[in-house]
Structures are given as C-alpha cells and as structure tokens.
Design a protein that fits this description.
It is found in: Cell membrane. The chain is built from 14 helices and 2 strands.
C-alpha cells in the first residue's frame, strides 16, 4: 500500500476526530462545569445525531455515485420534497386529503414506499437521459429539473402540506428501534454497505470510477458511457426516494416546500467525505463520515447557543478546505 493514497483516504476519519475534539473543547470552554459536555457525549445526544444523519446520508450515497462519475445533481432537494408528497398522496389512496379512518394499512404504506422510490427513480432517469442524450452539462440539466420537480410537488399537493394517517411509516425516524435508534438509521447502514459493495466489488463500480477518471478513455475501453450515466442517475434517484421516505417519516406529512437548499448539504457531505467534484474518487464510508460531521456540527452549535449561520459558515469553510485538499492531490498526481 502506498503511503500517500492511504493518508488521503484517512482524511475523512481524521476530520471526524478533529471536529469531535474541537466541539468538546468549545463546549467545555462555554460551560466549565462540564454539564453541557456531558450532555453532548450522552447516549441521547449521540442517538439524535445519528438519526439526524439519515436523510442527508442516504441521499448523499446516491450523490456519491453521480459525483464519482464526474456528474452532479442539483435536483435532489426538490426530489425529496416530491417524494414526501408522492408518499402522502399514495398512502391516502390517491388523494391529498387523509381518509376518514386515521390509520393506514400495511399494503398502503408498502405501495407508497415503492411509488416514492419509483417516482424519484424516474426523476433520475429523466436527468440522466437529458444530459446524456443531448450532451448537456448535468449542472444545467439538474438546475432546471430542480425547479420542475419542485413545481410538480406543489401541483400534486395543491401548494399545501398533505396530511396522512398517523401510523403511515412515521416510525422510521423515532427511537423505538434496536438500541433505541429508529429503523431509518439501520437503513442508512444497509445503504452504506450496498453502495460500498457496488463501488468496490462490481463491474458497475469499476465503470463508475472509470467514467469519472476519464470519459474518453472509458469509451475507448468499450464502456457504454451514456447508458451507464443514465443508470447512475437512476440509482441516485432511488437513494433520494428512500431519503424522501425518511424525510416524510420525520415530518409526518407530505410537504412540497421542504428541503430547499438541502442539495447543497448533500453535495457537501460527499465532498467533505473525500469525493472529488472532478470525478474519479469518493467512497460510501467517506460520504457517511461527511454527513456525520455535519450533524455533529449542528449539535455543537445547538449546545453553544450559536445561530444557524455559524453552522452554515463552518460547513462552507470545511467544504472549501476539502476541495483545496482534493485540488492539491490532483496537482501532485499530475506533476508525478
């Protein structure tokens, strides 16, 4: 194993430890009695941080596939909003008003989950097909579909939140699962494993890295770049749909106005976790660490009584540092 690549791969882990240590020091300085630090390190707070990682974490895994292939998807925030609306619409039996009986059947919930994931998969198919078929930069395509998907969500919902029966998949993000952590977190862990296996142990994974490293070289090697890109965006949509189900579970309703700007947090999780916007690098575990770092920063800001903008400025600074490190890595690779 070469030392430098190993060190670069360890950077997300080092960053996680650094953020935790700095957070502990800052909290201890604010409250010398140690009470706030004890709360920060408590199981209840750790559990909350893990659950708050779920939505961004799952969606960021799909974004990881896209970014490794040198693409980007700015529509994922709108897709999550659309996902909550589709879920609510289907679980209500094709209506924006809840049924008279305040209870949803297991079949209705199952169909709603499948419809939600399928709808976002179609969104990914549309993004991938347009950008590949017409050779349009994904940034432009997904910037447009970001508005389109948000508009579709508002159209279906009539511009308002869609209420649903209280038992409709709202247990994914509670504290009733194993170890007092909702099933949503375990779905995130399962998604990490699936993504890691896909990237490291399958032909598709090798294709994704190859396309991101050099699209022209991938073509010369016989890879159907256009078809692979479309499939990658479909997978991103599937992950986003699952994240949308988790978002619905957290809210308890379908809301077409949520997740505005969430795509930036999702992209930030990938970048902080070592994903390169130039393509060709990234990992499932790194992305999870990136999402976890952002959740820890949110918890720290809450403990410190800091305003939201402090967290935003901090995350923005970390993203710039991560991109700078990636740029340095590419320059050294080019020089060698």
């Amino acid at each position: 194993m070469k030392l430098k690549p190993f060190l670069y791969n360890m950077l997300p882990f080092v960053g996680l430890v650094f953020v935790i240590v700095v957070s502990m020091i800052a909290i201890q300085i604010k409250d010398p009695s140690g009470e706030d630090l004890a709360n920060f390190m408590s199981f209840d707070n750790i559990r909350t941080v893990l659950i708050q990682t779920v939505v961004v974490g799952i969606a960021a895994l799909g974004m990881t596939l896209v970014i490794i292939s040198a693409g980007i998807d700015l529509s994922v925030g709108s897709q999550i909003a659309l996902a909550t609306v589709v879920f609510a619409f289907v679980v209500n039996g094709g209506s924006v008003t809840p049924p008279e009986v305040d209870s949803a059947s297991g079949l209705a919930v199952t169909l709603a989950i499948l419809a939600t994931i399928g709808a976002c998969g179609l969104c990914g198919l549309f993004n991938g097909w347009i950008s590949s078929k017409f050779r349009i930069v994904p940034f432009i395509v997904t910037l447009g579909t970001m508005l389109i998907f948000r508009g579709v969500a508002k159209w279906i919902a009539g511009g308002e939140a869609v209420r649903t029966p209280k038992n409709a998949a709202q247990g994914f993000m509670d504290y009733d699962g194993a170890l007092g952590i909702g099933i949503g977190f375990y779905l995130l862990i399962a998604s990490i494993i699936v993504t890691a296996v896909l990237l490291k142990r399958t032909v598709l994974g090798r294709y994704i890295y190859a396309i991101g490293s050099s699209e022209n070289t991938a073509r010369l090697c016989g890879i159907g770049v256009e078809n692979q890109k479309v499939f990658i965006y479909v997978l991103c949509g599937v992950f986003t749909g699952l994240a949308g189900v988790m978002q619905y579970s957290f809210l308890g309703s379908g809301n077409p106005t949520i997740a505005v700007g969430l795509e930036l947090n999702i992209i930030a999780a990938v970048v902080i976790g070592g994903g390169s916007l130039n393509g060709g690098s990234g990992s499932a575990m790194g992305t999870f660490i990136g999402a976890l770092i952002m959740s820890i920063l949110g918890s720290t800001c809450t403990m410190l009584g800091a305003e939201t903008y402090v967290q935003e400025m901090t995350i923005g600074s970390i993203v710039i540092i991560a991109v700078g490190i990636d740029r340095l890595k590419h320059l050294k690779r080019f020089q060698s």
